[in-house]
Amino acid sequence: MKRIRLGAAVAALALAAVVPAQAVTPPTKLAGTVGPGFTIGLKKAGKTFKTLKPGKYSLTVADKSGIHNFRIKGPGNVNRATSVVKQGTTTFALTLVKGTYTFVCDPHAGSMKGSFKVL
Questions:
Q1: Contact indicator for 13, 41 with CB cutoff of 8 Å
Q2: Has residue 11 been placed in a domain?
Q3: Residues 6 or more apart in contact with residue 111 via CB below 8 angstroms
Q4: Do the domain assignments include residue 16?
Q5: What is the mean pLDDT of residues 92-103?
Q6: How does DSSP assign 21-71, residue by residue?
Q7: How confident is the model at residue 4 (pLDDT cuts 50, 70, 90)?
Q8: Which residues constitute the domain of residue 33?
Q9: Within a domain: 55
Q10: Which of 48, 49, 35 is CA-nearest to residue 107?
């Protein structure tokens, strides 16, 4: 009986050594900015974009003004925002699904806004 258990344990260890663990893919990084003037933007790898693929993203927002905020909203219950009065850097974990997303400065939504699609 002990030989069977020992044999099973050796076989399991050998299999674990041969089969690599699945690699965990880190989320894609996005960079948002708002202010210090009346500007708002969103980039991936330093470039603006109009479309993304569905998946997990890490959005880091540089809020450079005490009169602006950065809000992103869209499908999948995405609705995250920085504070209007607080400046600084904030990071949000997002799971984006197919649809249209918008980013906006709430106090200046008429002029400070953008959008992209997840296809």
A1: no
A2: no
A3: 38
A4: no
A5: 97
A6: PPPPPPPEEEEEEE-SSS-EEEEETTB--SEE-SEEEEEEEEE--TT---E
A7: low
A8: 25-118
A9: yes
A10: 35
